[in-house]
Amino acid sequence: MTALSPISPQLGTPPRSSDLSSATQFCNCLVPSCPSPVDGGVSRASEMGLLSIIRKIKRKEKEMRILMVGLDNSGKTTIVLKINGEDTSVISPTLGFNIKTIKYHKYSLNIWDVGGQKTIRSYWRNYFEQTDGLVWVVDSSDIRRLDDCRAELHNLLKEERLAGASLLVFANKQDIQGALKPSEIAKVLNLEAMDGSRHWQIVGCSAHTGKGLLQGFDWLVQDIASRIYLLE
């Protein structure tokens, strides 16, 4: 599998508007202990400042903001690392969020990988602003939690700030015996019930082997580009 072109990491320093497109940024905030948006705490202010930087740069560069969410242990972080050609042998649960900027053809993808534990799902709303593409990752082998998965997805799709975002559903862990096929996942998640104006696609994949990942991102990037760069 051919990895996307990574951008050189600069850890421990806040992104500047001049170097965000040339740096891979990592943030892993322990969300349960962070001040809530109502508290107006430092963490919230930092997030909003970073969003402001991204909005300003996006006007000048071909950037796309991708929000990657799903239940815990669905494989979100593994997918991000895999497409970037990084080691996936040891993955720690994402207790807050990770941000990675990846060069993809002529575009820069700002991927926000947000933790999916039940206790922090209420914080997802903090990351909806300016989202171009929504990636929902499903553990296709976790039959027991598919009802929960469907409910959380449809709650997200009701959000006005995500109304125009392209939706890519990754039916992950296809390499595991007993995993449901993408068509079966689509039925369980009731994807056909979505608003007809929503652009969406479901792709079977394995974050472990990398199969299907580039196929999914190819569709997502092309769909976003056809909307936000239509006049170029």
Automatic annotation (TrEMBL):
<comment type="similarity">
    <text>Belongs to the small GTPase superfamily. Arf family.</text>
</comment>
<keyword id="KW-0479">Metal-binding</keyword>
<dbReference type="GO" id="GO:0046872">
    <property type="term" value="F:metal ion binding"/>
</dbReference>
<dbReference type="InterPro" id="IPR005225">
    <property type="entry name" value="Small_GTP-bd"/>
</dbReference>
<keyword id="KW-0342">GTP-binding</keyword>
<dbReference type="Pfam" id="PF00025">
    <property type="entry name" value="Arf"/>
</dbReference>
<feature type="binding site">
    <location>
        <position position="77"/>
    </location>
    <ligand>
        <name>Mg(2+)</name>
    </ligand>
</feature>
<dbReference type="InterPro" id="IPR044612">
    <property type="entry name" value="ARL2/3"/>
</dbReference>
<dbReference type="InterPro" id="IPR006689">
    <property type="entry name" value="Small_GTPase_ARF/SAR"/>
</dbReference>
<feature type="binding site">
    <location>
        <position position="116"/>
    </location>
    <ligand>
        <name>GTP</name>
    </ligand>
</feature>
<keyword id="KW-0519">Myristate</keyword>
<dbReference type="InterPro" id="IPR045873">
    <property type="entry name" value="Arl2"/>
</dbReference>
<dbReference type="GO" id="GO:0003924">
    <property type="term" value="F:GTPase activity"/>
</dbReference>
<keyword id="KW-0460">Magnesium</keyword>
<feature type="binding site">
    <location>
        <begin position="70"/>
        <end position="77"/>
    </location>
    <ligand>
        <name>GTP</name>
    </ligand>
</feature>
<dbReference type="GO" id="GO:0005525">
    <property type="term" value="F:GTP binding"/>
</dbReference>
<keyword id="KW-0449">Lipoprotein</keyword>
<keyword id="KW-0547">Nucleotide-binding</keyword>
<dbReference type="InterPro" id="IPR027417">
    <property type="entry name" value="P-loop_NTPase"/>
</dbReference>
<protein>
    <recommendedName>
        <fullName>ADP-ribosylation factor-like protein 2</fullName>
    </recommendedName>
</protein>
<feature type="binding site">
    <location>
        <position position="94"/>
    </location>
    <ligand>
        <name>Mg(2+)</name>
    </ligand>
</feature>
<feature type="binding site">
    <location>
        <begin position="172"/>
        <end position="175"/>
    </location>
    <ligand>
        <name>GTP</name>
    </ligand>
</feature>
